[in-house]
Every structure is written in structure tokens, then in C-alpha cells.
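new request in #modeling-help
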Amino acid sequence: MDPAPPQDPAHNAGQPDFIKEQSSEEFAELRHAHRSFAFPLTIAFVSWYLLYVLLSNYAGDFMGQQVVGNINVALVFGLLQFLSTFAIAWWYARHANAKLDPRASAIKARLEGKS
Amino acid sequence: MTDTLQLAAEGVSEHRPLIISLFGTFVLVTLGVTVWAGKQTKDANDFYAGGRQFSGFQNGLAISGDYMSAASFLGIAGAIALFGYDGFLYSIGFLVAWLVALLLVAEPLRNSGRFTMGDVLAYRMRQRPVRTAAGVSTIVVSIFYLLAQMAGAGVLVSLLLGITSEVGKILIVVLVGVVMILYVSIGGMKGTTWVQMIKAVLLIAGTLLITFLVLLKYDFNISALLGEAAENSGAGGAFLEPGLKYGIDATTKLDFISLGIALVLGTAGLPHILIRFYTVPTSQAARRSVNWAIGIIGGFYLMTIALGFGAAALLERTDIIKSNKAGNTAAPLLAQNIGGGPDSTGGAILLAVISAVAFATILAVVAGLTLASSSSFAHDLYANVIRKGQATQKEELSAARWATVGIGIVAVALGVFARDLNVAGLVALAFAVAASANLPTILYSLFWKRFTTQGALWSIYGGLVSSVFLVLFSPVVSGKESSMFPDVDFQWFPLENPGLVSIPLGFLLGWIGSLVSKEPVNKEKYAELEVRSLTGYGAH
């Protein structure tokens, strides 16, 4: 059986001082690197998606315009949602590899060395 | 019985041995894998998390298997076939939703949780009340989702055996229940993960085949396919534009927004998806698995365009509706048509193949849902609430196996009704409940310092009760011909999807509940959660 589960508050003995760690400069950098990327991007893609939903609802004429043959703006808009999803997933993976993983593993290694 | 159905049933009856052997082979192979995985399942880590040794790609494939349910395969194809472009919203929402999971949830969850969604929801909070809430919410969301899958199973049986054969239908639903109980109780997460992977490959292969044949018929000219779909649908150009289903009046437009929000915010709150992140060793692997899943699922949803519009172009609209009012049989009927029609051997074979794939899809997803609910029952409710953390691992696993049987019985009971509801619409309800009850607490827990136990409870129960309550009084349940109970009318909430009201309510209640809470914030636990969730320190 594993040692005490993480939700057990009694297991803190021998554990690092998380409050001190949380206020350390390295951790602040890691948190900033995650939040400053993930939060605005989340707002951006949710807005972009809602724009698509709202245009579908209230801008029928615009969405119905034909682009090529029977392919209209609505379909192109839908396919762009696919494209932007793939692009954001790729972009986040690149960001995480370069900016998050090295910082996270440095802090983790330091904490493991301590305890 | 309708002509199409009769033809389908006749065409099938000649080839029924083929269908049975295809499906039987899938069941035998997957049960073999399950028994093999069961022999390696020794402790809770194996049963709940599959030993945490799957690779990012394997888990990505398994996530795709868990996610591409009967809703995606039967439901979306049917919704597009009947309502054209409006059905396509499902494909887009189901995919974009993965970005919420990728950017905000997957990695912190992997780093800080252990077996269930409740591990993370209750991390900073008083354990018993929040775990109880998380367990209840997990089970309710999973049962909504199960309802959709079993509706899909019922529909397939109707198509293959004829609507009159009630006994046959019940037998198949019972069979699905029994096999699923075996998968989960013997193989645990390890067995279930392999079943998901096998199913994902089969589903992708089957969909690729039909997509290829449809496109071949139109010389890979998508514009021509769309043109014929529009013409054959009887709606003309409007078929390719938004609004056929949701553009009727101001209420249906609100319903469209409600559905759109539920789809995009639901995924990251689905317990059976969240526990998949525990099957990989690190948060990096969790990230890779989401990226694989986005690629695989995105490719699949692109193909739903060909399936749905192909069905609209090649099948008669009246036949689709006669076979199933909600369009759930459009994909198998399309397979039959593209193989040469109801009288041909090719048509019968393709119908059999696609039906077997659809059964496999349902079986695998039902297993994933059952695993999520029984894990949560055993780990959150039984071990941590009822036994207050004093249960031995053996007792906990035994509780999980019994819960599997219990959930299986519920699933079978649900399989008997709800046949005329679109499967994708039903799953969207599960998404709305998940986004209302689970997502706010997940996000607040991970990212908001001032969140408290009271906030979590208000949010989970408020989101859960409001979403389920609104569904109960919506046209989904009563008052319309397509309702679950068409003969009674107690509906007053006009939207079919409650997300527009219940999701903001879930977020609002979590916020207010925390602000008015008398209990001080547990700063130590928040620091611990934040450091662990971002760095992976101490991850299981």
C-alpha cells in the first residue's frame, strides 16, 4: 500500500514548507509562466468559439455567403475552429516544453533533495 | 414497420451470422485482454489507474476511445443528416472543449490527484462533505452519459432485429451490461484502457472506410457532396447554413448558445475522462496524451461532415426519420447504402461492420463510465466518507467491484427507454451537468486562493441540482412528441440544454459561497496543492 494518501493532513511531517515554497521567486516565475500563457489564451479561444456560435445564430446572411461552390462562410468558420484548436494545442505544448517543464523540474528536484 | 427497416432487417437476417461473429470476435478478444489485464491488477494503483504506466500515445488513443461515444458516431451523423449545418456544432464544441482540459486541468490534476476527480476537488477542503459531493456528482454525470449510450444500444438493436422484437432488444442490452461489468470488475483501469484503445482503432478505421467511400462517390468533390445533400434534404441552401434546428425563434437561438457553452465547458468536468490522466506516469505524459487525443478526435470529427452530409445526400430523409425519429441510425443506414443498398451483399456486410463498430463503441464507453462511477463510489464515498479512511485496500476494491455490478444494473434498466431522443443531445445534458457541477470547483480549487469548503459545496450541489432540475422540466423530459415521456406535460423551462443558466450559477455559487464563508481559508493546503499541481512534487 502506498504511504498515507495526499489528502491526509497528518502526512505533512518531513514535507517541505509549502507556504515558503509558494512565495519563492522561482515558484512565482513558474506560476507566471503558466498563468500568463494559459489564462489569456483560454479567454481568447472561448471568445473565438462564442463568436462562431453567436454569428451562427444572429448573422445568418453573413454565414450563408458562398465562398467556393457550395462551401459557405459557416463551413469555413467551422473548419477554422478545428484549425485554431490544433494550432493552440501545438503552441501550448511548445510553450510548456520550453518555459514550464524546466522550471517545474528544477523546483521539484530541489524539494526532493530537501525532504 | 417501415420499408427501410424491413429491408434492413431482411438484409441483415441473411447476414446475421456475420454481425454476430464480428461483434462476438470483438467481445472475445477484449474479454481475453481483460482477463490478461486482470491478472496484472494487484492493488488499488492498478485497479483505479492502470498502474500509471501507459504512454502518452496509448492514453491519447484510450481517451479518444472513451470520448468518441455513440453520441459522436451515431448522434452527430444523425443530427447533421436531419438538420444539416446545425448538427455540426456538436463536432466543433466537442473538440474545442479539449483546450480547457489541456491548458487548465489535465496536468495539475495528474500532479495532485490520485484516483478520482474527488481527490482534487476535496484536496484543500474538509474531506467528508466535499468527497460526498464529488462522489454524488460523478455518479449523476456518468448516469446521464450512460443513458445516452444505452439509448444508442437500443436504437441499434431496433435497426438490426426489428422494432417488434422487444425481447431481443432487452437481451442485447443485458448482454452489453454483463460484458461491461466483466470488463470493469476483472480488468479494472488497465483492462478498460486496452478496450478503449482497441475500440478507438476500430471506430477510426470504420469511419475512414465510410468517409472514403462517400467521397469516392463524389470524386472527392466536397462541394458536390454538400450540394446534393442540400438538394436531397428538401431544405435547399438553408441545409448548409446555421439555423435549421436552432434558428426558428428567439428561444431556440438561446438553446443553441446554451448547447454551445455546455459542450465547450463540459469536457474538462467529465469524471470518466479526468481519471484517464492518472494512467500515465507524469504530467508531461498527460499533456502528450491530450495532444494525441485532440489530433485523433479532431480527425474523427472532420469525418462526421462526410458521414452526416453523406447520409443526407444518399438516403431519403423520410427513411432516416422513419428508422429513428432523432436520426440515430443515419450512420449505419449510410453504410448499408454506400455498400450497394439494402438488397446487396456489400450493403449487408457494411451495415454489419458498422453496427458491430457502433456496438463496440457503446460497450467501451459504458465500461469507462462504469469504472469512473464505481471508482468514485469506492474511493470517495466508501473508503473516505463511510469508512473514514479506515478501510483496507482489499475492502475498497471489493466495494468498487460491487459498485460496478450496481451501476451495470442501473445502465441496463436505463437501456429500456429514451429511444427517440438524439443521442448527441442526451450526451450534451451530461456535459451541461459536468460543466455546472464539476468544472467550477476544479478551476476554483486549482487557481483561486480564497475558495472554501462552503464554496465547493454550494457550487457542486447548486450546479448539480439546478442542471438536473431544469432538464426535468425541459422539453427533453415531457411536453413534446420527441420527449422521453411524450404523453405528459409538466415542462416549463423552454431550453433543452440547461447550461446557459446552470453553468453560470455553478460558478456564481462557488464564488458567493466562499465569500460569505465563516471558515478561514486553509492557506497551508492551498500552498501544498499549488506547488504540487504545478511542479509534480510528490505526485503518485
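bot summary: DSSP finds four helices and two strands in chain A.
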